[in-house]
Amino acid sequence: MTTRAMTVAGVMSGTSADGIDVSVVRIAGSHPWRKKRAKDGAPSSPRLTLLAHEGFAFPAALRRAVLAAMNAESTSTAELARLNWRLGLAYAEAVKETAEKCKLRLDLVGCHGQTLYHLARAERYAGRKFACTWQAGEAQAIAAELGVPVVSNFRPADMLAGGQGAPLVPLLDYVLFADAKRGRILQNIGGIANLTVVPPKAPLHAVLAFDTGPGNMVIDWLAQELFAKPFDRNGTLAARGAVIVPVLKEALRHPFFKLRPPKTAGREQFGRAYAARFLDKCLVHSKNPHDALATATALTAETIARSYARFAHARMKRSAVDFIVSGGGARNRTLMNMLAARLSPLGCTLSESDAFGMPAEAKEAAAFALLAWQTWHRLPGNVPSATGAKRAAILGQVTYA
Ligand SMILES: Nc1ncnc2c1ncn2[C@@H]1O[C@H](COP(=O)(O)OP(=O)(O)O)[C@@H](O)[C@H]1O
Ligand SMILES: [Mg+2]
Fold it and tell me: Would 1 be classed as within a structural domain?
């Protein structure tokens, strides 16, 4: 017996604060109440087809507000309440436009929201020690606009089960890419870069995932600061520079890179303050702004390659490995060339996720469509071996239309 197939929109806006991605997927699967699960407790595997994907840039004023609110030392309650509402309106508009454009009737929406704060490791506050997270964006605004139920607030359930609340994309990575013969690395390069390790023939609990460090975050900041560009389109600016080796070497000594997974990174470690210090160090050696960009690009490539070599390669049991890149960073040619140079000696074939039927910009949004589908059917969405949670958990809340 199978459930009725559902058309589900996933909505993602990441730490780059560049805008909103909406992916619409068709999901069908075995009946969730049949409790037919694999021996390792993995949920019955759904089948997923991407129907449409659209990207929407944030209006400049909204982007400024999001960047100012992320990890702000001080802001006002009014500011946060209004931003939360404004984001909800932006998500609603983006989903509506996507549904109209592709003429699809949606059954469900999964909205990640905008992370304004993510404290993965417990700290003391008001007499208690805890980790916490906050994704903003009023879900009711989407439900009201579209008349469709919305699943949101995915991360707290995992954190309250002892996990880091991230990454949550591994379930999709497993459903779409697990292979009997080939090892698969699903590398996303957004503001932060993270990878999912799916060894050949792996059960779900053998999946490992973690953040590798900065993705486009430092590159974006330098492109803005040095060239007044929002990002280094196709990596052309970095391609004209040379890597400043002493700066790269020193940057690689950051304690985050030595931590064993599971681990998560954010603007707390690699945001504006980090990028400004990085630039100062580059300027000591070279006044050529292209060199600073080349060095930041090399930092992303090198930390990804080292993460693979150190924490993933041994799990691949000497099989051939597809290293599949998604996120905006997949479009940075210089970064991709650096990655290919480092990874091919390790037996990896580098490609963009587009080659596997999932455009680089669409994957994370598609993941939140799948997670919404899981929650709708009261199935867990986190992968405990990826987040460090003690148990699988049903993620988020449903806002009924
Ligand atoms: N054509 C391109 N060339 C180089 N970099 C790009 C390109 N398109 C997008 N990017 C990079 O990808 C980032 C957005 O990636 P995305 O996957 O949306 O990240 P996030 O999930 O953090 O929002 C941009 O900020 C930019 O750095
Ligand atoms: Mg984005």
Answer: no
The answer to whether 345 and 310 are in contact (CB under 8 A) is: no
Rg of the chain over all Cα atoms, to the nearest angstrom: 20
Q: Are residues 314 and 340 in the same domain?
A: yes
* CA–CA dist 216, 368 (Å, integer): 21
Tell how far the Cα of 391 is from the centroid of ligand 1, in angstroms. 33
Q: Which domain holds residue 374?
A: 6-165+363-399
Rounded to whole angstroms, the Cα distance separating 293 from 359 reads 26
Q: What is the CATH number of the domain that holds 185?
A: 3.30.420.40
**Residue 206 DSSP code:** G
DSSP lists the bridge partners of residue 21 as: 12, 55
Whether the predicted pLDDT of 122 surpasses 90: yes
Minimum-distance ligand 1 atom for the alpha carbon of 233: 3
Q: In angstroms, rounded to a whole number, what is the distance separating the alpha carbons of residues 295 and 241?
A: 8
Place of tokens 């080796």: 245
What would the mean pLDDT of 332-361 be, rounded to a whole number?
A: 97
Residues 293, 368 within the same domain: no
Average pLDDT, the chain: 94
Domain co-membership, 29 together with 94: yes
Residues near ion ligand 2 (CB < 5 Å) are: 14, 16, 18
Under a CB-based contact definition with an 8 Å cutoff, are residues 308 and 169 in contact? no
Residues 82-105 have pLDDT tens digits of 999 999 999 999 999 999 999 999
Taking a C-beta distance cutoff of 8 angstroms, is the pair 214, 301 a contact? no
pLDDT above 70 as % of the chain: 96
Site of tokens 């929201």: 113
Closest to 325 measured CA to CA, from 296, 294, 354: 354
- Pair (213, 124) in one structural domain: no
The binding-site residues of ligand 1, defined as CB within 6 angstroms of any ligand atom, are 14-16, 18, 190-191, 216, 219-220, 231-235, 327-329, 331-332, 364
332 within a domain of the structure (yes/no): yes
- 213-230: per-residue pLDDT in tens? 999 999 999 999 999 999
Q: Are residues 248 and 392 in the same domain?
A: no
